[in-house]
Write a structure and sequence with these properties.
heterodimer; A: 626 residues; alpha+beta; Immunoglobulin-like; seven-stranded mixed beta sheet; six-stranded mixed beta sheet; 15% helix; B: alpha+beta; five-stranded mixed beta sheet; globular
C-alpha cells in the first residue's frame, strides 16, 4: 500500500529536483512517496552493511504539497519527505550535517538525545540564532554514543507539520543483543488544521478537542455500577474543579491522523520479515502531543533499549511510549503469518497501525480498542482510598490544579513509619486537616516504596539527601499509568528499566533542585513552578561539574514528558548503581520523579515539556551550566 | 570437583529423558574417563560466542563455560519446547515478585526442577557441565532463559545429525 495514492505535482517535483541538484542532494527520496527508509524489508545484516548515510549529510527543508492520510496536505519536508529521511551515523564519526532552509520562515533542527557541543544543539535563541530563509547551517559534532534517536525542528510549531525524522547511530562495539533485521517505527500525529489554530483553540476553549466528555449514557452506566449518590458526588466534584475526568490528552483524534512511518492506519504500512528471524524494532514517538501504547498481539516484545541506551532486557506484551521517548524492542515471529503493530493513543481517541508480515498485502485483525479511561482521583492524588469522604475534598474546589503546587512533600517524607498498614487505617477525616498536602499527596505514593522508607532513611547521605539511585517517595515507577488495566497484560513500567553498567560518575548528589510542573487548564498556561518562560528573568543554573538531583513534582492532571538537552538524566527508579539514563522523563499526574545529573556540559541548554503546545504555552526553561 | 560430578550425573540422567520413545536409554554411568570432547563457550551480555554446535550422537561432552558479562547467565540444554516452558516459568517467577529488586540474579539461582542439564554462572564465574548427547534426536538448543536473555539472542542450535 505505501506509494498508492501518489499525487503528481510536476511543479513541485521540478522544484525539488532543481533544488536537489543545486545543493548536491540525493533526489531518490524526492518523489513524495514517503520516507525512503521505510523500506518494507527494513535493513538486514546490519553489521555487514555499514552506514547508509553520514558522516556528511545534506538536508533541505521545504513546505510542499504531499498526500497524507489520503488527502492533500502541506507538510514541511526534509529532502522531499515528511517525516524526513533516516539519518544514519556511526559512533566515532565526526558528523557534518548541512541544513538548508528553503522555507519562507526561520527553521532549525535539534538532534534529540545527542550529547554534543551547545552551539550544535539547534535551539533558536538558546544554542544558536536559527537558520534564516535561504541559509545553510552546518552542524558539526563528534558522535560519542549509539542507538535510536530522532531529530526535529525546534522552531515555533514546525514539528507539528512533520518536520522530524529518525536518527540512528550504529554502535562501534557489539551491542548486548543480536538480531537479523531491523525496522524503524516512527509515530507522529498529523493535523490538517494550522498548528497555530490548534493552539488558539486550546487557549480559547478548554477541552476543544475533547469529544469524549462524559455523557448522559455514561451517567446512567455509572449509576448502575456505583449507585446514584456516588455518581452524583463524583460528577459534582469534577465540576467544582472545572476539570474533566476525561481530559487525558489536550489534542485528540478529533483532529489528528495518527501516522506510523508517515502512513495512516488504512494505508497499512508493512514491515516484512522471514519466519524465524529476530527483528529489532526501533520505536520513536515523534508526535507533537500523543502518547501511545504499543503492542503486537501474538508476539512478546523484549525491550532492549530506552532513549537509545541499552537496558537489561525486559519481555513485555505492551509498552507506553511518551512523546519524544524511544524504545528498541526485539520480536521473533516464528510463524509465516501477519501481525498487527498496534499503537493506541493513551486517550483511546485513535491509533496508528502497521503490519509485520512475511509478504506484502497481508494484514491481521485489529485488536479491540479500549475505551477512554476516567482520570480517577489518582490524578489529584486520591487513588486507592475508596473509603474517602469526598466531602473532605471540598477544600480543593477553588484550588484546581494550581492549588496542588502548595503540596508539602517534605512533610510526606516523615510518614515513613506509618507504612502501608498505617495508611490503610488512616483516618481520612484527619487528612482533610493537613490542608494543602492532604489527600493529593498521599495517594500518588507508591506503597511499595513506602514500606521501604524506614530503611531508606538510614541511607541518607551526610547532606541529608536520599542515597543516589533511590526512588523518591511519591514516585509510581511500578505503574504504567492511566488507561492501563494492571494485570491485563505485562506492560513495561519505569521500574523495569535497568542499565547494564553503572554510569562512571558515582558521586552522591551535592544538592537537590526541585521543580513543580504547573498549569492552568482553563487558560491553557503551562509552566514550571508557576512561572511561564516569558515570566522568567534568568536561566536555571547548574554549576559546571556538579552532581545534582533534579526532582520533578507534577502538580497537574496531565502527563508531562520532560526533556533536558545536552546532558543525560539518570532516572532514580530504585536500581542503585544501575539506574537507567534517559533524555526524556515521563512524569505522571501527581507523581514525584527524580534524576541525577552530572553537569558536565558547559553552556546554555533547553529544558522543557515535550508536549509541543505545553512548551509553546510556557513550560520551557533555559539551563545554564557555568 | 564435587560440583562437576553432580552436573555430570544430572546431565546423564536428563539426556536420556530426551531420548524419548522406544529408546531404553541406559547410558553407561561414566566416570571422568569417558569425555569424548571438550567445548569451551563464552557467555557474555547477551550472547554465547558460538551461535551453533555440531555434536556427534552419543558423545560425552565436557562444556567449559565462562561468564564474561556483567550479568548472571545460565547454560541449559534441552529441546525448543522444554526451553520455552522453562523460560515461561522463569518469567512468571519474575512477574510475581513485582518489578522492584528482583533482577536476573535471583531467578538464575532458582531451581530448574532437574529437568534439563543446566549451570548458572555469576559474572566472572567459570563452570563445567558434562553431558552425553542423545542418539535419536536431531537437534537441541542451548540457551540462557533468564528473562529477556534468550530473546536478546542467548541461544544456539545443537546439531546432532553426526
Amino acid at each position: 500500500m505505501p506509494g498508492s495514492g501518489v499525487i503528481h505535482h510536476p511543479l513541485t517535483r521540478r522544484q525539488i529536483l532543481k533544488g536537489g541538484a543545486a545543493l548536491g542532494l540525493g533526489s531518490a527520496a524526492a518523489l513524495g512517496v514517503g520516507p525512503s527508509w521505510a523500506d518494507p524489508w527494513g535493513r538486514s545484516s546490519v553489521y555487514a552493511q555499514g552506514a547508509e548515510e553520514g558522516p556528511e549529510v545534506a538536508l533541505a527543508i521545504r513546505q510542499e504539497t504531499l498526500p497524507i492520510d489520503g488527502r492533500s496536505a502541506r507538510p514541511m519536508t526534509i529532502n522531499g519527505t515528511s517525516p524526513g529521511p533516516l539519518i544514519r551515523l556511526r559512533e566515532g564519526q565526526e558528523a557534518v550535517l548541512k541544513v538548508t532552509n528553503l522555507l519562507e520562515e526561520p527553521t532549525s533542527i535539534h538532534w534529540h538525545g545527542l550529547i554534543l557541543p551547545p552551539g550544535m544543539d539547534g535551539v533558536p535563541g538558546v544554542s544558536f540564532a536559527g537558520i534564516a530563509p535561504g541559509e545553510t547551517f552546518t552542524y558539526r559534532f563528534p558522535v560519542r554514543q549509539n542507538g535510536t534517536y530522532w531529530y526535529h525542528s525546534h522552531s515555533g510549531l514546525q514539528e507539528q507539520l512533520g518536520h522530524a525524522g529518525p536518527l540512528i547511530i550504529d554502535a562501534a562495539k557489539r551491542e548486548p543483543f543480536r538480531y537479523d533485521r531491523e525496522h524503524v517505527l516512527l509515530l507522529t500525529d498529523w493535523t490538517f488544521e494550522d498548528p497555530m489554530t490548534v493552539f488558539r483553540n486550546l487557549k480559547t476553549a478548554e477541552g476543544y478537542y475533547n469529544d469524549q466528555e462524559r455523557t448522559v449514557a455514561d451517567f446512567f452506566a455509572d449509576v448502575r455500577e456505583q449507585g446514584f449518590a456516588a455518581t452524583a458526588e463524583m460528577r459534582s466534584m469534577w465540576a467544582k474543579m472545572r476539570m474533566s475526568s476525561r481530559d487525558i490528552a489536550d489534542v485528540t483524534g478529533s483532529t489528528y491522523s495518527y501516522l506510523l512511518n508517515g502512513h495512516a492506519p488504512e494505508e497499512n504500512w508493512t514491515a516484512l520479515f522471514k519466519a524465524g528471524e529476530r527483528i529489532r524494532l526501533r520505536v520513536i514517538n515523534g508526535s507533537a502531543m500523543s502518547y501511545f501504547d504499543v503492542r503486537i498481539p501474538g508476539l512478546k516484545m523484549t525491550v532492549v533499549a530506552a532513549d537509545g541506551q541499552p537496558v537489561q532486557p525486559v519481555p513485555v506484551d505492551e509498552f507506553r511510549i511518551a512523546v519524544a521517548e524511544t524504545y528498541d524492542v526485539l520480536v521473533a515471529p516464528e510463524d509465516d503469518t501477519a501481525y498487527t503493530i498496534f499503537a493506541e493513543t493513551m486517550d483511546r481517541s485513535g491509533y496508528a497501525r502497521a503490519t509485520l508480515a512475511p509478504r506484502e498485502g497481508m494484514s491481521a485483525p485489529l485488536p479491540e480498542r479500549r475505551t477512554i479511561a476516567d482520570r480517577g482521583m489518582e490524578a489529584m492524588g486520591a487513588h486507592a482510598m475508596p473509603g474517602m469522604d469526598h466531602g473532605a475534598m471540598a477544600g480543593m474546589e477553588d484550588s484546581g490544579a494550581e492549588g496542588m503546587a502548595g503540596m508539602d512533600h517534605g512533610a510526606m517524607a516523615g510518614m515513613g513509619d506509618a507504612g502501608p498498614q498505617g495508611m490503610a487505617g488512616m483516618d481520612h477525616g484527619a487528612m482533610a486537616g493537613t490542608g494543602t498536602a492532604g489527600a493529593q499527596g498521599m495517594p500518588s505514593m507508591d506503597h511499595g516504596t513506602m514500606a521501604g522508607m524506614a530503611g531508606e532513611r538510614r541511607r541518607l547521605g551526610a547532606n541529608g539527601l536520599l542515597a543516589a539511585g533511590t526512588a523518591q517517595p511519591g514516585s509510581r515507577y511500578g505503574q504504567a499509568g492511566i488507561g492501563i488495566t494492571p494485570g491485563e497484560r505485562r506492560t513495561l513500567v519505569y521500574g523495569d528499566l535497568k542499565a547494564f553498567t553503572p554510569w562512571p560518575d558515582r558521586r552522591e548528589p551535592e544538592r537537590e533542585l526541585e521543580l513543580h510542573l504547573t498549569g492552568n487548564m482553563e487558560r491553557y498556561i503551562w509552566s514550571f513552578d508557576g512561572k511561564t518562560f516569558s515570566e522568567m528573568t534568568g536561566p536555571l543554573h547548574f554549576r559546571h561539574g556538579e552532581r545534582l538531583r533534579l526532582v520533578l513534582v507534577n502538580d497537574t492532571m496531565m502527563e508531562h514528558p520532560i526533556h533536558l538537552h545536552g546532558m543525560w538524566m539518570e532516572l532514580e527508579n530504585g536500581h542503585g548503581a544501575l539506574i537507567p539514563r534517559k533524555h526524556t522523563l515521563n512524569v505522571k499526574p501527581g507523581e514525584r520523579v527524580s534524576a541525577l545529573i552530572t553537569a558536565d556540559a558547559e553552556g546554555s541548554w533547553a529544558f522543557h515539556c515535550h508536549l509541543l503546545y505545553h512548551m509553546k504555552a510556557g513550560m520551557f526553561r533555559v539551563v545554564q551550566v557555568s | 570437583m564435587r560440583k562437576t560430578l553432580l552436573a555430570l550425573t544430572l546431565g546423564l540422567v536428563t539426556s536420556t529423558a530426551f531420548a524419548a520413545g522406544e529408546h531404553g536409554g541406559s547410558h553407561a554411568p561414566a566416570g571422568n574417563a569417558e569425555i569424548d570432547r571438550t567445548i569451551q563457550l563464552e557467555a557474555g551480555d547477551m550472547w554465547f560466542d558460538a551461535e551453533s554446535l555440531d555434536v556427534a550422537p552419543g558423545a560425552t561432552i565436557r562444556f567449559e563455560i565462562t561468564n564474561t558479562g556483567n550479568l548472571a547467565h545460565e547454560f541449559v540444554i534441552g529441546d525448543a519446547e522444554a526451553q520455552a516452558a522453562h523460560r515461561e516459568m522463569m518469567q512468571q517467577m519474575s512477574g510475581s515478585h513485582g518489578h522492584e529488586g528482583h533482577g536476573g540474579h535471583d531467578m538464575a539461582e532458582g531451581k530448574h526442577g532437574g529437568q534439563m542439564p543446566a549451570v548458572t554462572l555469576a559474572p566472572g564465574e567459570r563452570a563445567e557441565l558434562v553431558w552425553t548427547a542423545p542418539e535419536n534426536v536431531d537437534s537441541l538448543e542451548y540457551a540462557c532463559n533468564i528473562p529477556g536473555h534468550y530473546e536478546s539472542g542467548m541461544s544456539g542450535n545443537i546439531d546432532l545429525q553426526g
